[in-house]
């Protein structure tokens, strides 16, 4: 398991990554590189909210409506 800080120009959030997810998608995590992450928000009484990066629906054989998440490289910006 790993804790990763993800941020943009407005805020930052802690990303909780479990071992299986790191094995499948951890290669996308690079300092100063954009990624698109989906998952579930975890809110605990005494802690700041965390995003729990979950396995992708495709990896579990899920279909539409499956709450799984994944990380992919973010689209290149058009400047």
Instruction: Name the shape in a single word.
Output: globular
Give average pLDDT, whole number.
Answer: 75
Overall structural class, as computed from helix and strand content, comes to mainly beta
Helical segment count: 1
Order of helices and strands: EEHEEEE
- What's the helical proportion of residues? under 10%
**What oligomeric state do these chains adopt?**
single chain
Rg over C-alpha atoms, rounded to the nearest angstrom: 13 Å
How do the strands line up in the largest sheet?
A: 1-2-5-4
Alpha-carbon distance between the two ends: 36 Å
* Number of DSSP-assigned strands: 6
Q: Runs with pLDDT <50, length 5+?
A: 58-70
Largest sheet: 4 strands, mixed
How much of the sequence lies in strands comes to 25-35%
Can you put this structure into words, describing what you see?
With 79 residues, the protein is mainly beta. Helices cover 9% and strands 33% of the residues. The chain contains 1 helix and 6 strands, in the order ββαββββ. The chain has one helix at residues 19-25, and strands at 2-7, 12-17, 35-37, 39-42, 50-53, 71-73. It has a 4-stranded mixed β-sheet with strand order 1-2-5-4. It has a two-stranded antiparallel sheet with strand order 3-6. Strand 1 (2-7) and strand 2 form a beta hairpin. It is globular. The chain starts with a strand and ends in a 6-residue tail after the last strand.
In short:
With 79 residues, the protein is mainly β. It is built from 1 helix and 6 strands, in the order ββαββββ. The strands form 2 sheets. Strands 1-2-5-4 form a 4-stranded mixed beta sheet. The chain has a two-stranded antiparallel ribbon with strand order 3-6.
């Amino acid at each position: 398991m790993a804790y990763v800080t993800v941020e943009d120009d407005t805020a930052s959030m802690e990303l909780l990554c479990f071992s299986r997810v790191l094995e499948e998608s951890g290669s996308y995590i690079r300092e100063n590189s954009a990624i698109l992450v989906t998952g579930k928000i975890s809110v605990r009484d005494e802690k700041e909210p965390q995003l729990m990066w979950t396995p992708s629906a495709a990896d579990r054989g899920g279909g539409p409506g499956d709450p799984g998440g994944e990380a992919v490289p973010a689209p290149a910006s058009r400047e």
